[in-house]
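My main concern about presentation is that the manuscript never shows what a single data entry looks like. The format is easy to grasp once an entry is in front of the reader. For illustration, here is how one protein appears when written out as sequence plus structure tokens:
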Amino acid sequence: MKILLAGCVLVDDYGRILLLHRNTDRYSHWELPGGKIEEGETAEQAAVREIHEELGVEVQLTKSLGSGEFEDNEHEYSYAWFQAVITKGNPEVKEPQTFDDLDYVEIENLMSLALSANMLVLEDAIFSGEVILDT
């Protein structure tokens, strides 16, 4: 059974996207803010909730960017991506047990980072033109 995830691409005034750095026993990589869709929740609701939980900000979704599928640690995932704008607050790490940093990254620099499986799929979609970000 696929695990359903949702998250947001947040783009700053310079066209950079916000990533979180996961630093746990299992992973050390950069990833998109987001997480599991809970029972009874839409992908949109999950994306907004996860952004608030992980970054402490409120967002408004501006468009769907589609979805991607990937495997990681013998599980199959489907991740719904949304572009969003921050409507309240300043992003900060709210789950320090999982994340140790956040940063806005230029899209051209994604290839030089250790990225999560989901971010690798999104990166391919961005560079292939399948996903177009509003900057």
Q: What stands out?
A: Helices lie at 43-55, 117-128. The domain at 3-128 is CATH 3.90.79.10 (Nucleoside Triphosphate Pyrophosphohydrolase). The first strand starts at residue 3 and ends at 10.
